[in-house]
Amino acid sequence: MSTVLTNQIIQKRLVEKFGDAVTNMEEPYGMFSFEVPKDLNLKVMEFLYDEPDLNFRFLTDVCAVHYPDQKGRELAVVYHLHNMVDNIRIRMKIFTDINEPDVFTATSLYQSANWQERETYDFYGVNFLGHPNLKRILNVDEMDYFPMRKEYPLEDRARLDKDDEMFGRGGSVV
Predict the structure, then answer these.
(1) Count of domains in the chain?
(2) Could you tell me the residue range of the domain that residue 114 belongs to?
(3) pLDDT, tens digit, for every residue of 126-167?
(4) Which of 9, 52, 56, 105 has the CB geometry, 3.0–4.6 Å to 130, for a possible disulfide?
């Protein structure tokens, strides 16, 4: 008789293996989410993959989020892992300084990480160390910025067709 895998069991196993390195554990909408230091991302994923009672063998998604106000933690890389046997999904987050966006690639463990990491690099500038072909996948090679970072104004103030008065913002009211 096997034990039903729960979020509490996953949390217990992670804490037993990695101790205080696993932080910010929560369960938004029932999905177990946690954070690990960026230098442990691959070790934690290998543990989740290799342990027969955990069995997280499917990488659903890799993405990033830009938090410009979090000094030293501006970029978050978010992994969604799925145990298809027990039908349980979890979310693992790592944070990195935007000036040192180096994170170990998960391509040796999950083949699906290849294009997902390329897309994350393309839009956020996360440098996946050891990736077999880390280059832009959707944007042109000549781009010298990462378009999903919050580093530019939302509107070009020089454009006349975007004049605030034309949209009822500011200016004189008649």
Answers:
(1) 1
(2) 7-150
(3) 999 999 999 999 999 998 889 999 887 666 667 666 666 766
(4) 105
